[in-house]
Amino acid sequence: MAVKVKAWKGAWWVFIDHHGQRKAKRIGAGAPGKKAAQQVAHRIQACLVLGQTAFDHPGAGLTLDAFAETFLQRIRQTRKFSTHEGYQQTLTRNIKPMLGKLDLHAVTREKVKALAMAGLERGQSPKTVQNTIRCLSSLLSQAVEDGLLAVNPAFKPGKFLPKISKRRGINPLTREEIATLLSTAKAHTSRYYPVLLCAARTGLRMGELLALRWEDLDFRERFIQVSRNYTHWKLTTPKSGESRRVDMSRELTQVLKDLKLERQMDAGASGTDVPPWVFCNENGGLMHPNNLRDRIFYGLLKKAELRQVRFHDLRHSYASLLLQQGESPVYVKEQLGHSSIQITVDCYGHLIPGGNKQAVDRLDTPAITPAVEAESATPAQPRWAPTPKNIGENPVDQAVIVRRYGVSDGFRTRDLRIHNPAL
Predict the structure, then answer these.
(1) Residues 201 and 155 in one domain
(2) Is 244 helix (H, G, I), strand (E, B) or coil?
(3) Phi-psi sector, 406: left (phi>0), alpha (psi -120 to 50), beta
(4) pLDDT above 80 for 422
(5) How crowded is residue 205: how many other Cβ atoms within 10 Å of its Cβ?
(6) Side by side, which strands form the sheet with 217-218?
(7) For 83, which of 109, 233, 241, 266 is 20 to 30 Å away at the CA?
(8) What are the CB-based long-range contacts (under 8 Å, 24+) for 273-281?
(9) In a domain, 167, yes or no
(10) Are residues 206 and 306 in the same domain?
(11) CA 109 to chain centre
(12) 134 and 157 in contact (C-beta within 8 Å)?
């Protein structure tokens, strides 16, 4: 009985010689392939000792399609609802049609690459293909944790996926365009002016705007406590998973105060309660995001004769205007609720004011040729500059002037060899 790991034809293989029967299994290439092959060899060795058939494993006969159901059920409790829905759609549309009928152990690195290439050939964007492979990698990582696989063939997909620029495409509105949009909203759809002003002055995501309640607003300290998000028709946590405080401008504070007073007056006149949502529909319930985006926002862009941008670009506009007026990227990161400063810099780093042309122009200034001086161990020591009044008053001073080293009192010198015979 022998189980060996060998490199053959550019990959690592496990070779078995047991009771006159020989089998071989290709595991993978490179250092990860060697490590995985060693793990597989140890497992097969243990199976043979127990009398099991070579290459028997807990996941034998388990297809990716079947394991995907278990995977989705598990992440339902550990991932956000939007993430779960996204994984389910990705598996159904992009992964299962090509790999669903395969055994888990039949999903190799080559098949993962083929899945990525097929997506690109169908016209999917590199970002979509990247999300597809990452979803598959998450599923296969779960299979590794369950002991069904020895290695995840979709691990580190960036090595074979097209490079995606970290600087995401943003299309922010200018300060003048924001002013035009808001003035048009105030003149034609005043009911939606507060929500658009809040989006432009806080950078909140649409779901965060629609999930705001009156208790989230602090008019005295002028901030909003963002602790909820409305997405896929469900209330959940913000994208980062953590709440944050966002500062309110004086204009926005006053507009929202007036809106609350108006709601209280309407509730008093009708004998009903004030709707809990800051931006609600006509019935006091949660506003429909498609209605706000498609009918209201796009309609105002057309009416104001502004270029077509996304509602999310109001968030980009907020960030870009803050950075262009010199605000700290750290402050912008906290206001936007990014999980790290790296995200802020990647998105908006090109908008951060840097140096100016005068900085490089100074490189063209000719260097002033300094006078030849004796070597000094302390070149930063201030140079004594003789004046007509003290020249010649002391013989030591005169010697120092001529020899151009030492200082005016004649008792200290920059030439250390005088005081240190070892030099």
Answers:
(1) no
(2) strand
(3) left
(4) no
(5) 22
(6) 217-218, 223-226, 244-247
(7) 109
(8) 274/214, 276/213, 276/214, 277/210, 277/211, 277/212, 277/213, 278/194, 278/198, 278/212, 278/213, 278/214, 278/216, 278/217, 279/194, 279/195, 279/198, 279/209, 279/210, 279/212
(9) no
(10) yes
(11) 27
(12) yes
**364: exposed, middle or buried (Cβ count in 10 Å: 0-12, 13-18, 19+):** exposed
Q: Do 191 and 331 fall into the same domain?
A: yes
Q: Higher-confidence residue: 167 or 189? A: 189
Q: How large is the average pLDDT for residues 356-378?
A: 62
Of all helices (H) and strands (E), which one includes residue 371? none
What separation in angstroms does the CA of 130 have from each of 55, 134, 162, 282, 342? 32, 6, 9, 41, 20
- In the chain, the number of structural domains is 4
In a domain, 345, yes or no: yes
Amino acid sitting at position 267: A
In this structure, is the dihedral angle defined by the CA atoms of residues 70, 75, 81 and 86, taken in order, positive or negative? negative
Are 134 and 264 part of one and the same domain?
no
Q: Is residue 310 part of a domain?
A: yes
In 3D space, the residue among 300, 204, 190, 205 whose CA is nearest the CA of residue 246 turns out to be: 204
Note whether 329 and 240 are same-domain residues: yes
Question: Are 231 and 377 contained in the same domain?
Answer: no
Residue 168 lies in a domain: no
Asked which of 159, 190, 205 is the last residue of a domain, the reply is: 159
Yes or no: say if 206 and 311 are a contact pair by the CB < 8 Å rule. yes
**Which candidate, 404, 412, 359, 410, places its Cα nearest to that of 383?**
404
Cα distance between residue 133 and residue 156, in whole Å: 9
What is the extent of the structural domain holding 400?
369-423
Rounded to whole angstroms, how far apart are CA atoms 380 and 363?
A: 23
- Summarised one tens digit per residue, pLDDT across range 374-393 is 454 444 444 545 555 454 45
Question: Do 224 and 187 share a structural domain?
Answer: yes
Same domain, 249 and 327: yes
Q: How confident is the model at residue 370 (pLDDT cuts 50, 70, 90)?
A: low
How far is the C-alpha of 9 from the C-alpha of 234, rounded, in Å? 53
Three-class SS of 172-214:
CCCHHHHHHHHHHHHHHCHHHHHHHHHHHHHCCCHHHHHCCEH
- Check which CATH number belongs to the domain holding 91 and give it: 1.10.150.130
Determine the Cα–Cα distance for residues 115 and 69; give it in Å rounded to an integer: 20
Sign of the alpha-carbon dihedral angle for 121, 123, 124, 127: positive
Judge whether 104 and 64 are in contact, CB under 8 Å.
yes
For residue 375, what are its two tokens? 């070597």
Average pLDDT score over the chain = 82
